[in-house]
Batch of 4 targets.
Target 1
Amino acid sequence: MTEANPTPERRAGLSTRCVHAGDVRDPQGAIHTPLYGHSTFAFDSTADLLDVVEGRAEGNLYTRYGLNPTIRSLEHKLADLEDAQAALAFGSGMAAEAATFLSHTKTGEHIVCLGDVYGGTFELLGENLPQLGIDTTFLTAGEVDQVPSVLTDRTRIVFFETPTNPTLDVFDIVTISQHAHAVGALVVVDNTFATPVNQNPLHHGADLVIHSATKYLGGHSDLTAGAVAGPAELLTPIATWRKNLGQVIAPEIASLLARSIRTLVVRVRAQNVAATAVAEFLNDHPRVTGVNHPSLATGDQAAIIKTQMRGHGGMLSFLVDGDAAATAAVVDRLRVFSIAASLGGAESLVTQPITTTHHGLDPAERARRGIADSLVRLSVGLEDAEDLIADLAQALNAA
Ligand code: PLP
């Protein structure tokens, strides 16, 4: 098989790379990398097998190792999108996070986690890893200036999402990376919300990028997958954990994910535009007391966004002027938005974070993080923005 390379003389643009990067033409001429669901691959000789086993040649060996043509093709595409040397694909975003933390920290070492992160990440860092003697210091978005004082010579990883879930705070990747690197810690950024269309954390000093590919990369709410991208040297130990924990993506899902990534740029750019229109509508609505979307940011946040983001994203959240029950009533009146916990699909979703993503968090901790009972999070899909705005208007305007 040969790798497709439509513009060999110069680096292709992001849309072209989403369509073609990593794709190989097989002898049948299939237009994309075929789906190889096979668990194992045969060799012409023991010498050829040893070349792959001992790392002298790239090749296919055993699917749980990730050495499968469909998975390797997807990983080339993922690496290309994040301008990384390499990437690893996983069965979920949590699998990618867990393998990254386990391979780059050990008992007695320390992680720093900034801002609001996905609830599962809170649980992994706050409850699972302490059982292995790996502890995490959590700082809220408002405490980010304390980063230098919580870093120690035991700190191995500084982890954060930007923009964050669900308050859409942004962090300055350049400055945080400078602090982390000064003590020899790695910076790991979860780029799920921004996507490689709107932000490439590795360009700003991050060492590794993580995705829940279940979200925008998959884009249709019909697959679960994860990815880590970065320098090969940092990915090698992660690949060992992935192999031995059996966390690799299934080839069938890898093929589906590569299919989805081919339309990533048009989807995300449309979602950027629609979410900005929805944010502006909500910002002017009398029953809405606050809107969180990067397009509305001011001051330092606006300056960071200008430096490191190319688009504002399809995620936003807003505060309803009412209690938890009144807010739930607004959510329940929505007809175009579906009540669901995920994000990043073609269909618009709504969730009240206290009932889903942040349900498990102690109410005092939620309050400290600005996750109010009246906060509503939207994942803006690919419907017409006018229909989304009309739906929000009827839900908010009802008595
Ligand atoms: N990171 C973010 C920002 C998420 O929203 C999620 C899931 O909602 C995850 C990671 C975990 O990904 P997955 O559900 O694919 O394991």
Target 2
Amino acid sequence: MKTKIESIFHQKFEGQPLIVRSPGRINIIGEHVDYNGGYVLPAAIDKYIYVAIDKRNDGIIGLYSVNFDVKIEIEINNLKPSNDFSTYVFGVVDQVIKRGYSISGFNIVIYGDIPVGAGLSSSAALESAVAFAINEIYQLGISKLELVSIAQSAESIFAGVNCGVMDMFASIYGQKDFAIKLDCNSLQFEYMPLVLDGYSLVLFNSNVKHSLASSAYNIRRSQCEAGLNRIKQFLPNVNTFRDVTESHLIEYILPFDKEIFTRCLYVVKEIQRLNDACQHLANGNLQALGQLLYATHDGLSLEYEVSCFELDFLIDEVKGNSNVLGARMMGGGFGGCTINIIKDEAISELIDSLKVNYLKTTGLHLEVIKVQTVNGTEIVV
Ligand code: GLA
């Protein structure tokens, strides 16, 4: 891959580029709680955004996307959001400049094998790769944690999705064979060994693109904020959803707004599920972990309402199968992938029949992605 992207860089631009790659992510459990003060359990996976980058001194960004075959040249002082991938690059540059770092332009070639719109955080991987790469070529001395913050702000301020911190954190801090138990309040984290003896993590990409997701995402976020703010009026000691119980919700939210109640109920239950899941993972109790994944899916589908017919179908199809310990939709929702813990010997037979049933029922092709965990954003040597 290094040779390929380097040679494309030489076709499009002059100079000798630095190659950086940043991975996509999965999340074992803890969905839609990163912006609700919870914990999450993501891991970086072997699907990447690669960038080849070199400085320039004339205040211009030259950008070429291999996937979209698009070349853009733009002044660094005149960056505006758009509907395409360039927004994520410019969003990062905008943040770097706003934070007082001085840069004078660059040429960049981008290539990725993370399926777009599949809930694997291709945009966070792109933002993380660009932030990391600019930091390297300009020797800005930005810490890893600030790179995460730059990438997150690029997404929320420039791209307009008021996302949590999980995706960038996983992309930058990922470690092979580990999931990251991340406290999204304090950003303290610990690496948890992802030992799944005899089982594998398999993603089923519904091939439904989650295009409606960003507006629905922002709505979920404000509903939860409204719920939490209301509870705080009655219980001033409550800081985050971690301090909230189901009885608080019944007492203070249910009489006020049923929909907000249901959203908040999901959050409170998911925060608890994550804690239980980490214990099961640490004790090697994969059966119990799997059951929690199914419970999370029910919550995302019925309470948080971010699933869709195709994702629910994929879960229903595997739920009664004793070779599948657990499964759920993953990421923002409204499309993208399900994550499944499947017994190794059973994978190929299961895939064969699921592909047929999925096509018959939805008219869509199922993409199967077996994932391995990998290290986070790094220079490719
Ligand atoms: C998207 C967001 C994340 C997180 C997930 C849901 O991937 O970017 O911050 O909120 O949805 O868990």
Target 3
Amino acid sequence: MIPINKAILLVGGKGTRLMPLTTKTPKPMLKIAGAPVTEHQIIKAREAGISEIVLATSYLADVFEPYFGDGSRFGIKIKYAYETEPLGTGGAIANAAQQLELGENEALFIFNGDVLSAHDLAAQAKLHIDSNAAVTLHLVEVSDARAYGCVPISADSKVLQFLEKMDNPIAKTINAGCYIFSNRALKEIPKGSVVSVERETFPALLSSGQNIYGYVDGGYWIDMGTPESMIRASRDLISNPALSKATPEVINHTLVMREVQLHSSSKVGEGSYLESGVVIEANSIVNGSIVGEKAHIESDVLIENSYIAPGSRVTSGSKIRGEIFGF
Ligand code: GDD
Ligand code: MG
């Protein structure tokens, strides 16, 4: 078990690139592979030995607590931090940390709320502790780093620079959205003001000579910033259920929840996720898609790599490919 057992989950972003999916539901509460993104993350944290987690909420803050409560249903203690105005990633961390009683030499995990990752939290924690780092970032390698925080590191894993969303990235290693903060680094974030941990805190820590380490891990990783990546993540978790213990039982490579009516002439292909109460009439095909609760798919419909809104109706003969439908 890891010696770091407290965490903050950043779930307050507006999910602008996912609109209209996120008009009524914040991105972390959208369901993929049978559970909200946040639940997949919380279960992973619990499995690694994290016992207390604060959800740093802002946009559509009210929907988290009714679902997660005090966390007992999920085997972990869950608390909530609210922001009257969005405080940015750094401000959100400083605000949420007030709910945790951290010892002088204690460290905590911070998770971006829109990332699924199979990386080894214990190995990240080991690097943090062994190197007495101020902060240890999980890094992944990507071919195009422009949409991310570009993080060049030295041969001994020290972070050299932190360059958020640059046009000409100078390295392929990027910030994967999971940090370990030592208490002394946490104290550097001003409270009650809007702060970006990526644009302000990390560069400031580096220029004041503090050690930030990068833990590179090649395990499964996905950032769900777009509808396509959200649908892909759901498909990936269903195709490989070992990725998340929050995924319910997968049968025949598909995830079909309760009270689904599927006509015997219709087909549901690998990686699809049908929420409870879905109805699919005759001769329809659903491939690699998410079909929301109580959606009704009429006959002779083709749905591929799409996200169908809960309660929506897809009329007979429709072809829906790579779409967000009915939101
Ligand atoms: N509570 C709170 N308040 N949370 C926030 C706020 C805020 O004001 N702003 C953003 N967040 C949360 C989002 O909900 C998300 O979980 C996380 O902070 C990161 O914000 P995004 O808006 O998703 O940032 P990004 O995807 O453009 O970039 C970030 O993630 C990349 C990896 O996925 C950065 O951390 C990049 O450096 C990183 O590479
Ligand atoms: Mg993001």
Target 4
Amino acid sequence: MTTRRAAIILAAGKSSRMKSSRSKVLHPVGGRPMIEWVTSLARDAGVENIVCVVGEGNADVRAAAEGLGLEIAVQEPQQGTGHAVQCAKAALDGFEGQVVVLYADTPLISGPTLKRVFEAFDTHAMSVLGFETDAPAAYGRLVTNGNELQAIVEAKECSEEQLKIELCNSGVVAASAADLFSACDRVTNDNLKGEYYLTDIVEILRGDGKSATVVHASEAEVLGVNDRRDLAQAEAAFQALMRKNAMVSGVSLKHPETVFFAYDTVLEPDVTIEANVVFGTGVTVKRGATIHAFSHLEGAVVGEGANIGPFARLRPGTVLAENTKVGNFVETKKAVVGKGSKINHLSYVGDAELGENVNVGAGTITCNYDGYNKHKTVIGDGAFIGSNSSLVAPLNIGAGAFLGSGGVVTTNVPDDALALARSRQVNKDGWGSRFRAVQEKLKAKKS
Ligand code: UD1
Ligand code: CA
């Protein structure tokens, strides 16, 4: 029988240092709110029950947690991490198995690391995720003897000697539900902060004859976010990891430090990304495609061998088939573009479906919005859209059709037709010299 797993996510803090109208744990890292990072970390580790501890003032956190399908436990007032865990006890009533305590403001712990926290149960009753740092500052210190964790001592309570310890508590703690709650029941607030410290459970359980151990993580992974500077640091750590992973999996980043990813960016091998490219959420770039400098992509699929930018903006709903081209100063939105089609210069293509091998000339605009509703433009295979065309949607351009440049196209164009939607040009022979003669005479009269 496999052991059941539960998680308690602590999110009842006031997050005053963020100076934000939004609760801290809803701020994003890599385009994903921190609370979602922790939730998916737990789910990926096979955790079935997740309880999120919120304060009464965190209505936005509560709504987000409910949206993620988490159970809610309210902690009011906040009397410390040990008290927070106790507040989750009722929600886990009857649960038998392993419980891990996670912080909603610590988003970057990796799946393999959490797996090691659970694996520690093979040898110990309790495990704590620790990390080495040369700036231990306010972190709780881990007092160890070999593999055995003897105590966690909060910085405020540390002796001179203990303050020198560089192995610190990340906050992640795991024990069986029975041990965790029985120990939390016995935690007191008899300390300098007058709080119920979750960290006291190590000594309490050891007093019961149970053992505890430390699982090691890197400092970057357990970085907790308290203010905007920490948020920026977490973002930087996340980006560094994504860049490394991209390159290791066969993606060329010309200037890695200038490329920014989202948590769900998918890049296939042999993709090349030039400098200053930003990925919003929901982007997949297929094998062999090139994203040239200064492009911004969000909610888009870029097909095999496609060529994007420089200075392209792909917005949500863009799906580009293989060997397509989207050039400089082109914006696409809800645009499905067939194989080999090109939109090379200065265009807006929105709410559109383009067939294969369509050529969209410079400065073409789909006029998709009438101030009330959005309308669709459909362009058939092999059509040629002359430069500076305005395509007033709803509109169908047939396969193989030609649009003369500069047209304002308002009615459907049949397959293979030529559409001219501009006034005919008139040339007036000798007009220039007649005009100049008149103007010079007028000027002479005035002077
Ligand atoms: C805690 C640990 C410390 C560890 C550090 C890592 C304790 C006593 N100390 O200290 O050993 O090195 O984290 O960052 O556990 N929270 C609640 N309710 C409360 C108090 C806190 O939900 O009553 C939540 C906060 O929202 C936060 C987390 O618990 O997500 C940690 O709380 P915080 O007050 O920041 O703990 P630290 O003092 O940093
Ligand atoms: Ca903290």
